[in-house]
Specification:
By secondary structure, the chain is an all-alpha fold. The protein is built from 6 helices and no strands.
Length: 165
């Protein structure tokens, strides 16, 4: 494991823990943005450039902005006085049990024991050409659906705010 990978991994895990444990929703959203950026950095460290740049464009750019807008349009940003949970150990125990189950499944899997086939040489340029030639219609349909969903969410949030006045 290289030093940059370890630093990015530690930053990603730390920001993910902060996103789960902070009380202020805006701070949680900003920690989640840092987590998404850390994942993009990990993908780039693993030579998965297309996935890394897609992570930056989709999650760090679009999804993070959507989450921040949703928080700011629908909720108060003040933390509540009551504790987040009265039994945190139950959640921790469930998380540990889930992790151990997945880890044991990965270790017992025969996939890890096989010799991996060489990875195909697929470049970002090839993927971009495929998206802009063969899959341009589904790409545009998804863009229109996401735009319509965002506009609908803003309109619903605005009607609720006007009804409260």
């Amino acid at each position: 494991m290289t030093l940059p990978f370890a630093i990015i991994a530690g930053l990603t895990v730390g920001s993910a823990i902060a996103a789960m444990s902070l009380r202020n929703m805006v701070h949680c959203a900003l920690s989640l943005v840092l987590t998404f950026a850390g994942l993009a950095g990990l993908y780039l460290q693993l030579n998965a450039e297309f996935v890394g740049f897609t992570q930056i464009l989709v999650y760090v750019g679009a999804v993070s902005i959507l989450i921040v807008f949703a928080i700011l349009l629908t909720r108060s940003t003040d933390p509540k006085d009551e504790p987040a949970t009265v039994t945190p150990w139950v959640g921790i125990a469930v998380a540990v049990a889930a992790f151990l189950t997945m880890a044991l499944a990965v270790v017992a899997s025969p996939v890890g024991k096989r010799v991996a086939a060489p990875a195909p040489e697929v470049s970002v340029k090839t993927l971009g050409q495929k998206l802009m030639t063969d899959y341009v219609l589904p790409l545009e349909v998804m863009a229109l659906l996401l735009t319509a969903a965002m506009l609908g969410a803003v309109i619903i949030a605005m009607k609720d705010k006007e009804g409260q006045r």
